[in-house]
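Q: Can someone sanity-check these two? First one:
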Amino acid sequence: MSAGTREPTLITVLDLIREHPSISRVELADLTGLTPTTITHAVRKLMTFGFVQEAGKLQAVRGGPRRLLELRPDACYMVGVQFDRWSAVGVIIDLGGQVMLRHELPAPGTRPPEDVVADFAAHVETMLQTAGVNRSDVLGIGLATYGPQDREGGTLLTPQPTEAWQGFSLTKTLADATGLPVVLENDATAAALGVQSLGGSSGSFAVVFMATGIGAEVVVDGQPYRGAASNGLELGHISLNIHGPVCTCGNRGCLDSYAGPRAVAENAERDPELARRLDLGHGPLADFLTVAEATLSGDTGAEALINDSAGMLAAGIVTLVNLLDVNRVVLAGSAFATIGPFYRTVIQEVLENSVFMRHVHGVRTELANDTSHAAAIGGAIVVLRNMLEASAMRESRAPGGTASPAATR
């Protein structure tokens, strides 16, 4: 095995095999631009893991028949959990990216992290039993949540939702409770990986993730941009007004303070008639979703708030697009569950009129295929990516060794 077959190569090849019912090594080389030798090494590695198998032959126009490859979707499974203070969802996916089970989990609220982790562990066990997945076939659990975070150490570096969470050994505690490896990922980055898994593995695009807050990530040539600390792009904390209110991050006039679900909920509460009519007061995300539903039902007061939020979010996305020059923006996160098409329409109109490069190329705004669960799906995908990366690192240190998925657990 070549030490040069790193995780990006393995995941790129695996993604392409996932996207095609069957594909040859020659086609993989053509699609990736990688050498036949590199493709052969990558395929051999994936076959060693049991992820890929040969599926007959195809007679080529020139030369001998080509051996076809196909994915083994049931070779392994991954669990993904996305949470913030006000919501939590879980999924189980197979190697093909198929969602086997979606599951609502109890939101953390202000409970101690130990109690929340115990809840997560119990629900993961229920999920596995419900889906009929053997624990021995599970690669691990991917947790997607807000930052800043220490991915390697598995801890949050912020006192959210309470001070007890800052520095809490999140991944180790959940791993001890479940007996499964646990990895931590920024929710916006996880959403980008989920979008990639659901809708294609190649190209460059930006994801705007909105649950209780606003985040973003950009995928460049199939790989997420990691930055200095792998904490995603904090779109919610770019300043739209330097004289605006002080944000918890220390900045002034942050986008999240104008466009986020909490801002919408707070603005709705300031209108006593609207708050009474919609029965608000159940937390920022729940209240935002209520305002969103009312908008779709024709409530003009609710629509004015959502329209303001969408317009401010669009202004922030213009900055994102101008900085990164992407031509595709995908909206993901539970806040877009019902009102996503409304936001997409507003954002698309603003981008068409305001992006600096609009005369050179268009920018398409779209919704993720599984808007509410994209980050949880991406969290599960991170488990697989980390396993492949760890395997490549071990082999680079000890050429000739062959790792298996079980060796990473």
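And here is the second, same format, sequence then tokens:
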Amino acid sequence: MTAGCVAAGAASRGDDSVGEPGRVAILGAGMAGAIAARRLTQAGLAVTVLDKGRGIGGRMATRRVADHGFAFDHGAQFMRAHGPDFAAALADWHTRGIVAPWGETGRWVGTPGMTAPVRDLLAGLDVRPGHTVTALVRKGSRWHLTVTETAVEEAFDAVAISFPTPQVIRLLDTSGLSLPGIERPTYAPCWTLMVALDGACDLPGSDLVDADGPVGTVFREDEKPGRRGSGTRLVIHATPDWSRAHLEEDAERVQTALLAALARHAGRPLTPAYARAHRWRYALLETTLGEPCLYDPALRLGVCGDGCLGPRIEAAFDSGRALAARIGADLA
């Protein structure tokens, strides 16, 4: 629903909340959820961020391998700015050492990992990882959350969901809710392989390495700013078609297949010091919503994320800001 916000004040939330700031639950701690949380906090609202993962960042993910002393950005690899708002955010992060330019002009990465910008946005906020929200329950004019791992005692005046839209649909269905248009965005999956090799490797990062096989892109993790060290570290993204065909396959079988394909391109056997496959079920946006966000002012329930505007971190940033503006105006 894209109707304008309705006027609402503290009194509409019940007598026990008069004079208190509006409470907002943000579901998902990726870029969209993080910027929405920061903007709503700046607007004077009380924000709680919940994410089912052990960490934060969503697909701006960094996998740390403590035994080897290195890490991989195994989700989104870099950021670009097309508009002034995200360009200003990147400039600020750059000034404070949170991002750095990488390779070709206009590409930026978080430092020391891709989660850094999200961590900056969420610094000092009420963030609760390891919280799997399974249902939204409306009681009067407020929201209560059903969470698998623990009880969430707070009631919320508004809820913003920043999951990939197939996960949003499941949550809404379970809760007996709907938002018109939520079914429009579609995603392709991606199997990712993280590989560490001793010594140098003659495989530079490049696009579309294996158009007819499993390897879609190869990224040189060890060439990113702040990641240098001994040996070679690669992140391989499988093609969407191959990932879809092998979506439910065991991770070890996927790892073996991708290593074999990589070895064919290297022209020699590879004996990695470390290798691990990771499945992103909702990785590559194929069809967008075509709107900055979805928001139902009657329910004070909204959705944001890259599924709204496009397959870029900047799109998630813009979508989160848009939904925060709608909720902020509603609860002002």
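A (reply): Looked at the second one. The longest strand covers residues 274-287. The helical segments are 31-42, 84-95, 116-122, 165-175, 240-245, 251-266, 306-309, 313-331.
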